[in-house]
Amino acid sequence: MLERLKTRYPNACIANEPIAAKPLLWFWMEEEKRYFGIDPGELTPEETLLLKTLFPKFQENTAGTLSKASKWYDYLFLPDADAPVRDGVYRITQFALAKAGPNVSGVQEAIKNMFVPDVLVIVTNQVEGIVIEEKSETIATEDDLTASIRAFEGDFYTPVLLYLGEFQEVASLKHHFPFERRLFEFAKSRRKTSALFTVHSLLPLYLLSNLPESEKGLLFQSLHGLFEEDREMGQTIKRYLENFANASLTAKQLFIHRNSLQYRIEKFEEKTGLNLKHFTDAIFAYFACLETFGG
């Protein structure tokens, strides 16, 4: 029955629990033990009556009960929708689970608890959603969210990826959000394990991915050859640069003596002619590392 309904209503959503993303009419499939959500606008009055007769256990998420979430959803995803608020500074955090969880409302609550102030969590499908957060004096830091991601994975036994958006005036948010969605799609295509992404963490790899392969080959040919010969050196340089040239932290993370780290850095600089204390040299070396080893 479920497959036949999906064929008849291809835009419908299947979930273990009704999803509070947009107003939908949710029918409980007793045999499959799942809900089938249909936009009421896709149903004729006769179809609605027939479905309610066939599936007496149903839930109707009306526009009134989901007014706030629905208005934000429409504003961000539909072309001509009005802003849900007049003014204010907000950011959008996107999240994606590696697989559908058994408890949508539990996932929704766990995501909400990652943030310090009260936020609006909108689940857009079985594995993805967004968090609407107004700027305040107390906001979750990247370190806070990274710790929350680890706790989430421990509780739900599935990786979760977050993209932490930039705070924007509400009037600018609609135009900025599509770019943040593209960045998150790019991130998901490169990473399947739990992680927190931001524009500054993704931008170098994103820019590299948009360079023609022929140009990347010309730019990083010499360093790529060096890293292929000595991958340990390349991975050391990458970690060192990601740690803002903090030698003590890098040595600790790599489980090596600081003198060994210094030797690898000096060996790299001697072979390449680059000086990692110079910003432009360090940027070039880091891009070469990303091209060779990925993000």
TrEMBL record:
Start and end residues of each PucR C-terminal helix-turn-helix domain: 235-289
Pfam families: HTH_30
PANTHER family found in the cross-reference section: CARBOHYDRATE DIACID REGULATOR (PTHR33744:SF15)
Name of the protein this chain belongs to: PucR C-terminal helix-turn-helix domain-containing protein
